[in-house]
Amino acid sequence: MFIIKNIFEKLGVFIEDNTVPIILIALLLIIISFQGAQLIGMASGTDTFVDKNSKLYQDYDHLYLNLFGTESIVMMVEGSDVTDPEILKAFDRAYTSISNIPSVVDVTSPSTVIKQANYQMTGRSKIPDDAATIDAIIDSSMPSSLITDDTHATMYVVVEGTASDSTKEEILREVEISVRQANFPADYNVIVTGDPAFSIAMNEEMNTSMGLLLLLSVLLMVVVLYLVFKHVRWRLLPLPIVLVGIIFTFGAMGFLDIPMSMVSMSAFPVLIGLGIDYAIQFHNRIEEELARGESEEEAIIDTVKHTGPAVLIALIITALGFFSLFTSTVPMIQDFGKLLMIGIIMCFISSLFLGVTILYGFDKLSRYNILGKLGLKRKNDGSNAHSSATIDPEDHDPDFLEKALKGIATFSMKNPVIILAVAGSLCLGGLYVDTMVPIQTDTETFVPQDMPALLELQHMGEILGGDDQLNLIIKTDDNTDPDLLEWIDDFSEHEVEGRSHIDGSSSIVDLVKEANSGTIPDSSAEVAAIYEQLSDSQKETYLEGNNIILLNLNIGNAMSELGLEGIEALGDVVEEDLVWMAPPPGNSVTITGHSMVFVAVISALTSGRSLMTLLGIVLVFCGLLVIYRDFLKAFTPVITMIIVVGWSGGLMYYTGMEYTPMTATLGALILGVGSEYAILMMERYFEERDKGADPELAMQEASVKIGKAIVTSGLTTVFGFSALIASPFSITSNFGVITVMDVVLALLATFVIFPPVIVTLDKYREKRKHYIATHKKNGSKGVLNNIQEASTQ
């Protein structure tokens, strides 16, 4: 530690000598960061939940999405009679306009079916004016997916599944314009929905809520700093300092291509709560040094020398706690971890260089009364303007908070057995019931439930039925093999009739049978001839080259009805059916699809959560051991946070909360946030011990001197996390509620659990050292006496 403090002492001298260049560099970095922030993209698709490197996702991406995957923007019309000729003509106008939109793969409309049927009957490709003719065509030719009943009709706009988000948004906007220009009657309801529309709306909602969360977080910080940090001058200064760190983080996010997701957007209120702690610690120590009568230069150098290493160690340990987030197989959790790691580094840099520099400048200016209205006036005794300048304290007596912190520390140290027994019992009980906390995996519950795009998507599902599918990719040497087509037909029929949640199937077999009077030809040549008769779009829907065939099993609303666990079980059933009802030799089947890909989230949440927490504990302990080379200093903060992890699990169980992809990170977050408080307290404790104080007195002094800053930091973190509660995304608001409770628990453990643990272990170590030293001393005396006795004899 001596070497580290020596380095930071030199850094303090550097900061004191280069205030203007530091501010200019900070301004330049802010400008660069704004440029980087323009590069941030939004992400809400499947790849935010499932690792792109996993076999499951690669099967989905390479075998299905790239070869067959499409998405549909759906226009649904509701009214008294959607078979009315005027309504169908409006459909035709919309169809004509939408078909000309670039990047649209296909458009399926009820109007085209009716026009084609009318052309075959009359030779005129137009919508008949006769309602009876239209009804006859609908009864004989219209798919139920296009006209469900007399009050609902649908048009599907097909886009490539691999199209970029910006391309999908452009198509969506053009479709909306085309629908408005089609002039549907005013008493008919027209909605444009589908998965692309929902994803785009969710991205917009994330952008909006991101700004609101940051604004609310800042306002809450202003309140807590004004109320709790009032013992220093310029009490609101830590807030703009940490916001500069947030700006740096936004810039890094853009340059490093880290997308904004429903999870990563929560990192910024969290970072405000964490990062402001660094600014508060430096601010508090500078004021303390100045109050002792040091000059501005001495205060800056001593602050950086003593507080810099402590905050850096806390940052390293926090980062080690967050590092365990990278073990998650959920990409948006990994991105969350990246942002937290980058963010705390940026906030530390901003606090150390910019924060200390601005405080130094403000103090210089206030001495000349330039900023007298903003802070406490400086006074000196006339001997030396630098060496004797001090802060004029309002009151030398300890305030209520200082008395309370000292009282809590004293009580816990006097009753270590009771305190630790109760805390340990609650921890063990919490760790046990934590395994019983349910896991929420219905992704639709994560988004705002009143979001129009979600309501429209759900309404479409209620009318048309769900469109979830299991996609079976069949690899073959010959896609015209009649035996293979027979197997596809038999297997499809078996699954639809034998499995309650499989509502239907579609494959190339349906088109072949339709073209061959309802049967499958006996020879490959006949099948190949039928393939030649099909349109390119029909073949591309189910065939890729001569070696891959797609079989879709429609599972309707199974995702919302069964959840991911049910989908996983359904996939297992289909796998078992493929074993005993195997395809002909030489053919293989892979089950994939959007629904199956999300099954991987289950494993990530169940097994990954415990692994993240365990790895975080190991990393934090090893990190402290490497830094301090002292078992006591490594063990004490970790055991304190393990107790908090146990308390948190129990709290979640007894309050009926559920784990989500975000709350699954709580173990790592507790270790990262809570260990910082314990480390800062421990650093001050040993600083007092080095001055000669006994363990109890050192702990009391540490609780009073740094306790205020820790409470302020903790409350700012709590208020920062509280902003998350206001998020319209339930996944984020629930995370906010739980993290607020966990930070409060970490603060409680720091002042109640940490003191008796470290004092008891430190006293035991001192006694042991004394015993060993005494034993060695007595042993050497005994040997000397024996030698003297022998020589006398």
From TrEMBL:
GO terms for cellular component: plasma membrane. The keyword Transmembrane applies. It comes from the Archaea. It is a multi-pass membrane protein. Keywords: Cell membrane, Membrane, Transmembrane, Transmembrane helix. PROSITE patterns: SSD (PS50156). The keyword Ion transport does not apply. It is found in: Cell membrane. The chain crosses the membrane at residues 20-40, 210-229, 236-256, 262-280, 310-333, 339-362, 611-628, 635-656, 662-680, 709-731, 737-761. Residues 244-361, 634-760 form the SSD domain. Its main location: membrane. This is SSD domain-containing protein.
